[in-house]
Design brief:
alpha/beta; Rossmann fold; 2 domains; 9-stranded mixed β-sheet; 9 strands; globular
């Protein structure tokens, strides 16, 4: 598909990728009035998800949007709530799920999410199939976008057979190793300290809830995102090292096998992403993958110069084509 150089523009008073990343979090307070669904996983775990019903009459066909949040986020992140509210007004039921250990309701097991946990997204699609949905749309943000793109590549032709019409992703670190290196740089300390601090808190909670399952002595070794992946994510999920995890879970290695229409929107001033997260060659040679590059927007920001939340509108416009 052609690579789109988007006309999206951020407000003049919000210069730079950092401000375009941080300000929308403050400026977009959204409430959540939802029904919680508890979805069982094959390994005995259970995840909480927020379920929204479309603003349509009962006799109209139902279609479902499954939304996946990003690193250290939840189903109540402003960007997730934004697409949930916008999508239900456009006729979608919405399932916004929480990765393991995220959100207000903890998962049952000692397991925590990692950057390639596409098996958990698959459980959400299974739930949708069990509920009778035949039109399934997928949205993924940041790390959730990596998980989604990986899942699509793993599924190949099976995704369409299972009812998936298309997918849209934004601010996606398709090259995990490069993104971790970017975020671990001293210039990104404001992000790294927040992420690593939250991860350590979650690890302590899990260790307290499941004595003997997690070795807290590793906490002294964890100062970077790479450290966390090497000492926690990798061993807990069957990887030999952080590098092994990145090599086996980065979405860039799965893009070629995606078999449903897929949109990838990345801002060129995203402070989280490295050069390999703009897969120009892959998009040029893939008939179903559209890469949209915005000059501005930051990381999951996308407040437009007109004052609206462009990413919600862009995703829904893309979904409407399928």
């Amino acid at each position: 598909m052609p690579i789109i150089h988007s006309e999206f523009r951020s407000p003049w008073w919000m210069p730079g990728g950092h401000m375009q990343t941080l300000m929308p979090v403050i400026m977009r307070p959204l409430s959540s009035s939802t029904n919680i669904r508890f979805i069982d996983l094959p390994d005995g775990d259970q995840l909480a998800a927020d379920f929204y019903t479309a603003d349509i009459s009962a006799d109209q066909p139902r279609k479902l949007l499954i939304a996946t949040h990003g690193l250290e986020g939840s189903s109540r992140q402003p960007y997730v709530l934004g697409i949930c509210h916008a999508a239900r007004k456009s006729g979608f039921d919405v399932l916004a799920w929480n990765l393991r250990g995220c959100g207000e309701t903890d998962n049952r097991l000692a397991k925590l999410y990692y950057s390639g946990c596409s098996e958990d997204l698959d459980a959400m699609v299974v739930w949708a199939e069990q509920q009778g949905y035949r039109e399934i749309y997928l949205a993924g943000y940041s790390l959730g976008g990596n998980i989604l793109l990986k899942w699509l590549g793993e599924q190949g032709d099976k995704a369409q057979a299972r009812g998936v019409r298309c997918a849209a992703t934004a601010s996606v670190p398709v090259d995990l190793a490069g993104c971790v290196q970017t975020l671990d740089h001293w210039s990104k300390m404001i992000y790294r300290l927040r992420f690593v601090g939250d991860m350590k808190k979650r690890l302590r909670r899990k260790a307290k809830k499941f004595p003997g399952t997690i070795d807290l002595s590793v906490l002294d070794k964890i100062n970077t995102l790479r450290d966390y992946d090497h000492y926690v994510s990798a061993p807990l999920n069957g990887f030999a090292s952080a590098e092994d995890l990145y090599a086996r879970c980065s979405a860039k290695y799965f893009l070629h096998n995606i078999a449903v229409p897929t949109l990838l929107v990345n801002a060129q001033n995203d402070p989280f992403l490295n050069a390999a997260c703009y897969p120009l060659v892959e998009a040029q040679h893939h008939s179903l993958l559209t890469l949209e590059l915005t000059r501005t927007g930051g990381h999951v920001g996308y407040l437009s110069h007109a004052g609206d939340w462009w990413m919600d509108r862009r995703f829904l416009h893309y979904f409407a084509q399928y």
